[in-house]
Amino acid sequence: MFLVLKFGGTSVGSAQRIKDLVKLTVDSTPKIVVLSAMSGTTNSLVEICEALYAKEPEKAKALISALKQKYIKEISLLYSKPISLEKAGELIVNHFNYIHSFTMDMFTANEEKAILAQGELLSTAMFHYYLEEIGVDSALLPALNFMKIDANDEPDMVYIEKFIQEELKKFPEQKLFITQGYICRNVFGEIDNLKRGGSDYTASIIGAAIKSPEVQIWTDIDGMHNNDPRIVDKTHPIQELSFDEAAELAYFGAKILHPTCILPAKKRNIPVRLKNTMQPEAQGTLIANISTKEGIKAVAAKDGITAITIKSDRMLLAHGFLRAVFEIFERYKTPIDMICTSEVAVSLTIDTNKNLAEITKELKEIAHVEIDENQTIICIVGQLPKDKSGYAYKVLQAIKDIPLRMVSYGGSPNNISVLVNGNLKKDALQALNKGLFNY
Fold first, then answer.
1. Which of 197, 324, 387, 402 is 20 to 30 Å from 26 at the Cα level?
2. pLDDT by residue (tens digit) across 142-198?
3. Number of helices (H) and strands (E), helices first, in the chain?
4. Domains along the chain?
5. What phi, psi does 62 have (nearest 5°)?
6. Residue 138 in 3-state DSSP?
7. 339-341 and 345-350 strand pairing
């Protein structure tokens, strides 16, 4: 049985960090190691694509050259043997010649996804070559040979389960595999990806596909914290979370874990452990099918929220009004986060403004519409039984001086959510830290 270990961009962000992975990955336990691109690489590749879309080939070439020089520097620090330096040099030349080739022709979304895949292809090959140099046996497991999404951009688990086993069978005695996070193929067989942060998702999907005993997500923080350590002074890592608690926190802003990561593991009942590459001895956070203690565990915040209030004098008596509202969001594939209703109005939130103009236009055909942008959802998560009193009071008491745009409670036994103006996020998180955790 293979453990699945995922390492993010910071963990492979330099030659030294790549070398440091050896002590976390090389032992007698069979492992599949999932790597992100080196930190900063995907952002640079996005910049290159933006220049190509803007028909600025010279700018794109300059960006490509700068990124290539970064990799040339890192391989000079990573390898010491001439044969390794030669192989790594050829790797860099081949991948950057490939990227450079797109400066000559028309540029499309499909080509963008092919460019964005290069970061993970580079990091995995570089780690593989380093293990080879120091005499550690490993094998590359090409994600593009088994990771596939369907027409709805969901993982095609039947395909993945079949073809990952085919890849593993090519090396029947191998105990250490290295594969790419984030990248995949779509239903047409084209190179695609699982969106930003998708390496967590890759690890969880692989863990589910091979029925791994555990998926480990290694980052630069010692587990999921009870509040945002970037904003509040005192936080602590949470030792255990249920799948549902972790999913709520990840969806509503806990940056350590990609929101989609939980579902594949939950479906196959595979524990997910969050660990810190800088402090591997730290306990981290275990996410599993467990019953945690009653009470509030953590707070997370999700920025970039737009609140929409839809008012209609006929709403109370209008059969099908809510259905008409939700069908508009469905047509534009825009999910709703929070919702509150009254006799004549419904308020809801969305986390993308991609189709806001079109949605607003259609909503105005059936009701009066008010839009508030730059909002933040603050989510308070834990085991909050509906038959127990005091939790909502404790939350609202802690933020009694913060104006609330919306409150959502009762839809889940794991979540109380409030909506505040984005400018009040820091004040709200600090007030909750004091009121809920006595910090």
1. 197
2. 999 999 999 988 999 999 999 999 999 999 999 999 999 999 999 999 999 998 778
3. 15, 16
4. 3-219 (3.40.1160.10), 297-437 (3.30.2130.10)
5. -65, -40
6. coil
7. antiparallel
